[in-house]
C-alpha cells in the first residue's frame, strides 16, 4: 500500500499537487486555512482535517506547501498556537516516529537546515527533506514540476516515487538546505529574465514593432526561455492573474540576496531587480503575477 500523506497548505500550488498524489493512489489528508480549499480536497477524494495535529497524526509522509519561512516555522513548531496548531505543537510534535517530512515551500536554506536539526532533536527518527519546486501553477497542475531536493540520500530515495507523482525532473542537490539554495538561484534567474522581457516589450512597442510577431521570433532564438514562452500571453494581454505573486517573488529575492551575501557571491543585477520587485510591491502590485514587473517599466517609460 502507498504511504499515507498529510498535506499542509492547499494554495495555488498545494491544491493541484495534492490532487496529483490522490490520482496516483495516495491516501491524502489535508489542512489549510481556507475552508473552500478543504472542500476542493474532499471533492478530489482527499480527507480534510480540522488542524495540523489532526492531519499529521499517523501519517507516513508530511508535506508542507506554505507561503514563507514564518508559516513553515509556525506549522513545524506550533509556535503561534493559532492556525490549527491546537496551541500545542506542530508537525514535529505530532508526527509519528520515523515519519518523512517534505517541505516543498520556498524558504531560506537556513530555515531548512534548522528544521532538519529540530527534527533530529525530537529523537523520534523524523526524516526531513527540503524539496522546493519550479514550474509554476501549470507545472503543478500537469505534474511536471522541477523538484530540487536537499537532505540525506536514503531519504531522497524513499521520497522519489511520491515526488515523481508531482514532477518530471527530480534531483537531489546536496545536504539539507541545498534544494533551497538551488531554488534561490532559480528565482534569481527568473526575476532577471522577466525584467529583461518587460523592458524589451516596452522598447518594442514604443518603437512601433508588432509585439506578437516580435515575441514569436524572440522565443525561437537565443533570447527564448520558459519565461518568455509562458509569460508571453501575460505580456501581450496585460493579464496579471497569478500565477506567481510579486509578494512571493519579493520574499524569494530576499532569500537569494541574503544567501548570496552570506557566501560572498556578488549579485549586481539580482540586487537591482530585487529593488524593482520591492518597488512594484510598494506601487500596490504585490498581489499580481510577477509578469507585472512590466507595469514598473511602463511607469518609468511614461506609458
Ligand atoms: P498560496 O498563498 O497560494 O498558498 C499557501 C497556502 O498555505 C494557503 O492555502 C494557506 O491557507 C496555507 N497556509 C498558510 N499558513 C498556514 C498555516 N499556518 N496552516 C495551514 N495552512 C497554512 O501560495 P502558493 O503560490 O501555493 O505557494 C506556496 C509556496 O510555493 C511558496 O513558498 C511559493 O514561493 C512556492 N512556489 C510557488 C509557485 C507559484 O507559481 N505559485 C511556484 C513555485 C514555488
UniProtKB/TrEMBL annotation:
User: The 6-phosphogluconate dehydrogenase NADP-binding domain covers which part of the protein?
Assistant: 4-173
Q: Which residues form the 3-hydroxyisobutyrate dehydrogenase-like NAD-binding domain?
A: 177-295
Per the record's keyword annotation, is Repeat included, yes or no?
no
UniProt keyword annotations, A-Z: NAD, Oxidoreductase
Q: Name one Pfam family in it.
A: NAD_binding_11
Q: PANTHER family recorded for this chain?
A: 3-HYDROXYISOBUTYRATE DEHYDROGENASE-LIKE 1, MITOCHONDRIAL-RELATED
- Protein name, per record: 2-hydroxy-3-oxopropionate reductase
The organism named in the record is: Streptomyces stramineus
Amino acid at each position: 500500500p502507498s504511504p499515507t500523506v498529510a498535506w499542509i497548505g492547499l494554495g495555488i500550488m498545494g491544491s493541484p499537487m495534492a490532487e496529483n498524489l490522490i490520482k496516483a493512489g495516495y491516501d491524502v489528508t489535508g489542512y489549510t486555512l481556507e475552508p473552500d480549499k478543504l472542500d476542493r480536497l474532499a471533492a478530489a477524494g482527499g480527507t480534510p482535517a480540522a488542524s495540523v495535529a489532526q492531519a499529521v497524526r499517523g501519517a507516513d509522509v508530511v508535506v508542507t506547501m506554505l507561503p514563507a519561512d514564518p508559516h513553515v516555522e509556525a506549522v513545524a513548531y506550533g509556535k503561534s498556537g493559532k492556525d490549527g496548531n491546537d496551541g500545542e505543537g506542530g508537525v514535529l510534535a505530532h508526527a509519528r516516529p520515523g515519519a518523512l517530512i517534505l517541505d516543498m515551500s520556498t524558504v531560506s536554506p537556513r530555515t531548512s537546515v534548522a528544521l532538519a536539526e529540530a527534527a533530529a532533536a525530537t529523537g523520534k527518527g523524523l526524516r526531513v527533506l527540503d524539496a522546493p519546486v519550479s514550474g509554476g501553477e501549470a507545472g503543478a497542475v500537469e505534474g511536471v514540476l522541477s523538484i530540487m531536493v536537499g537532505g540525506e540520500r536514503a531519504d531522497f530515495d524513499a521520497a522519489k516515487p511520491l515526488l515523481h507523482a508531482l514532477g518530471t525532473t527530480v534531483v537531489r542537490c546536496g545536504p539539507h538546505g541545498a534544494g533551497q539554495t538551488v531554488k534561490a538561484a532559480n528565482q534569481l534567474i527568473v526575476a532577471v529574465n522577466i525584467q529583461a522581457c518587460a523592458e524589451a516589450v516596452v522598447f518594442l512597442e514604443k518603437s512601433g514593432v508588432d509585439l506578437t510577431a516580435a515575441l514569436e521570433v524572440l522565443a525561437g532564438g537565443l533570447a527564448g526561455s520558459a519565461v518568455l514562452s509562458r509569460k508571453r500571453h501575460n505580456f501581450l494581454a496585460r493579464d496579471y492573474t497569478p500565477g506567481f505573486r510579486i509578494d512571493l517573488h519579493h520574499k524569494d529575492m530576499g532569500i537569494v540576496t541574503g544567501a548570496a551575501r552570506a557566501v560572498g557571491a556578488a549579485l549586481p543585477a539580482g540586487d537591482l531587480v530585487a529593488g524593482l520587485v520591492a518597488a512594484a510591491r510598494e506601487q500596490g502590485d504585490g498581489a499580481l503575477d510577477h509578469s507585472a514587473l512590466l507595469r514598473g517599466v511602463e511607469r518609468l517609460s511614461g506609458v
